[in-house]
Specification:
Blueprint lengths: L43 H19 L7 H14 L11 E5 L6 E3 L4 E5 H4 L5 H16 L2 H8 L22 H8 L3 H17 L7 H10 L3 H5 L3 H4 L3 H14 L10 H21 L3 H13 L5 H17 L1 H12 L5 H9 L1 H16 L7 H12 L3 H14 L6 H15 L1
Parallel strand pairs: 1-3
Antiparallel strand pairs: 2-3
Helix pairs in contact: 4-7, 7-11, 8-11, 12-13, 12-14, 13-14, 14-17, 14-18, 15-16, 17-18, 18-19, 19-20
Length: 422
């Protein structure tokens, strides 16, 4: 018997550590969903697992983590219908959801529901890549890996004392439940990779795009950045997995070319990218936001004005919240969060405000820019106690955007400044 010990370290006010044990026993004889009379949901154990997964989905809905954009969900549904195996009974209801979580991840639950994080969707660059990710998770569902895994292992949360879950994605609180429902063995991952290639090959997608998924999601991203709370972090021996999958693409499918639909995916991901950046900024992932923004700007994707404004926001927030910026630095570099590191970010505040102003001014120099950079300039001036410039820019922001969602907040700052001047 072999045991895989998985440790997640969260640099928060209290450390959350999960130990997850996988028992490498022989596989249980469970029919896939494509089989006739597969017995899905008929045993008490599977029924309880499905109920647990349903409960997790309800929690995600209640927390507002399910992305409800009609066009985005229609696009995912189109890809799902393209890769759906003919052998899958029409009575089997598989559902895909976009999750407002900036961690780079996708996962499948035993109730046949599959989740695609905005962090992952913002990272990949074509429909063919998306099809592979979806096909991989679909294979987990069809092969009932969640049910098999429950029968083959004993899982236990040793310690889960959570007091400040504000790291690496908005949904870290669902991690313990996700780990118990959607963690798979090396064999299950290999099987899912194999079936996924078959699904997307039959659907006519370019198999050579699969290597780009691995490069962008599993290899090219720093481990601490992408994978806290990510199923992809737990996949054992990813280099071996990549090599085996690429070998299969060459030997079995002769590096089959096909559709990639990069343009369609660009249109789909534009809103996803902006939502992901907003999520990163909201959750204190300022460096990650800047890296993503620069990647988008270099590839000329998205609204340049908006991206420049968001980059300004990242620098402004680093300056406004040096303790949170230091915490991200510690997490990404795997070092301790101490007073010296926090002080270092305090000392950088002036430089970060200057960088923020530079980005706001650059955004305003573009054609058809939004008024948001004026708000950024005003907030920086307010933080630096330049109240004349603060009021000037904040009022300009409201004059152009009279129905701004944050109008009351901005007016409150202006009112506070004027009261202090009296």
């Amino acid at each position: 018997m072999c045991t895989h010990l998985i440790r997640y370290k969260y640099l928060v006010s209290t450390v959350l550590i999960i130990f997850f044990t996988v028992s490498c026993t022989s596989s249980v004889n469970i029919k896939p969903l494509t089989a006739y009379q597969n017995g899905f949901g008929e045993t008490d154990i599977e029924h309880r697992i499905i109920a647990k997964a349903d409960n997790l989905h309800q929690q995600l809905k209640n927390k507002g983590m399910i992305y409800r954009d009609l066009d985005a969900n229609a696009y995912v549904d189109k890809v799902w219908k393209t890769i759906r195996p003919e052998a899958l009974n029409s009575n089997i209801d598989v559902q895909f959801f976009i999750l407002k979580d900036s961690s780079i991840n996708a996962f499948a639950l035993p109730n046949n529901q599959i989740y695609l994080n905005i962090g992952l969707l913002a990272r990949i660059t074509s429909e063919a890549q998306l099809a592979y990710v979806m096909a991989h998770e679909l294979a987990h569902v069809i092969q009932r890996h969640g049910y098999k895994g429950t029968l083959e292992r004993k899982s236990k949360i040793i310690s889960a004392h959570i007091s400040d879950l504000v790291l690496m994605g908005t949904g870290i609180a669902y991690l313990p439940a996700m780990v118990s429902l959607a963690a798979f063995t090396r064999e299950a991952e290999t099987e899912a990779d194999t079936y996924a290639l078959g699904y997307i090959h039959k659907a006519g997608y370019n198999l050579n795009q699969v290597s780009m998924v691995f490069n962008q999601v599993l290899i090219d991203v720093r481990a601490n950045q992408s994978m806290l709370g990510s199923i992809y972090n737990r996949h054992p021996n990813n280099k071996e997995r990549v090599a085996n999958t690429l070998s299969l693409i060459g030997n079995k499918y002769n590096f089959a070319k096909g559709k990639t639909n990069e343009k369609g995916y660009r249109d789909f991901r534009r809103g996803i990218v902006e939502l992901n950046i907003q999520s990163q900024l909201r959750n204190g992932h300022y460096q990650l936001a800047v890296e993503g923004i620069k990647r988008e700007l270099a590839s000329l994707n998205g609204d340049i004005n908006t991206l420049l404004y968001f980059e300004g926001e990242a620098y402004r927030l680093m300056a406004d919240k040096p303790s949170i910026a230091a915490r991200e630095e510690a997490l990404l570099k795997g070092v301790d969060l101490d007073d010296a590191l926090i002080q270092e970010f305090h000392d950088r505040s002036a430089d970060n405000y200057d960088k923020a102003n530079e980005m706001y001014q650059l955004a305003l120099s573009m054609k058809n820019t939004s008024p948001a950079p004026y708000k950024g300039l005003g907030l920086v001036a307010y933080a630096e106690r330049d109240y004349v410039q603060a009021v000037l820019n904040l009022e300009r922001y409201l004059a152009i955007n009279s129905e701004a969602m944050d109008k009351r907040y901005i007016k409150g700052i202006i009112r506070k400044i004027r009261n202090e001047e009296k």
